[in-house]
UBC core domain-containing protein
Amino acid sequence: MNTIAIKCIQRDIDEIKTNSKDSPIVFADPIDDDFFVIEAVISGPSSTTYENGIFLLSIKFSEQYPFNPPKSVIFKRAIMHPNVDEYGNFMSELLKPDTWLPSMTIKNILEHIWARLAIPDVDSNECDLTRAHLYKTDRERFETMAREYSLKYAAAT
């Protein structure tokens, strides 16, 4: 087992625990002491259809972390967003091997996801084409659906 990866993941989790004041990150912890699978929760950005939502994520890392991006970042409950496919997979250029930076931390990843909730990237290759099309062509319908998903699956009030 790669101790460098585990040390980096532990360091990242400790950073979140000690620097979470005024952060959208509610928590991040390993699942069953497996530091290669992290469960995290972020709050929805204010003034968005995701406001007041609590979003549960699963992040899977390889033994090459931090030199390689996470293997997957998945929303564990349904969410309507252009950068999340119907299976909950979060898509972002930032998480691609050719654009990933080893200096990225779990906190950076979660803050990037939170920012992407507020401002979707609908013009990149890293989006669900159907959801991005709806977002671009019928924003009102998209936002209504996104709010309904948030109320139903993320306990948004």
In short: The first strand starts at residue 25 and ends at 31. The domain at 4-156 is CATH 3.10.110.10 (Ubiquitin Conjugating Enzyme). The first helix runs from residue 3 to 18.
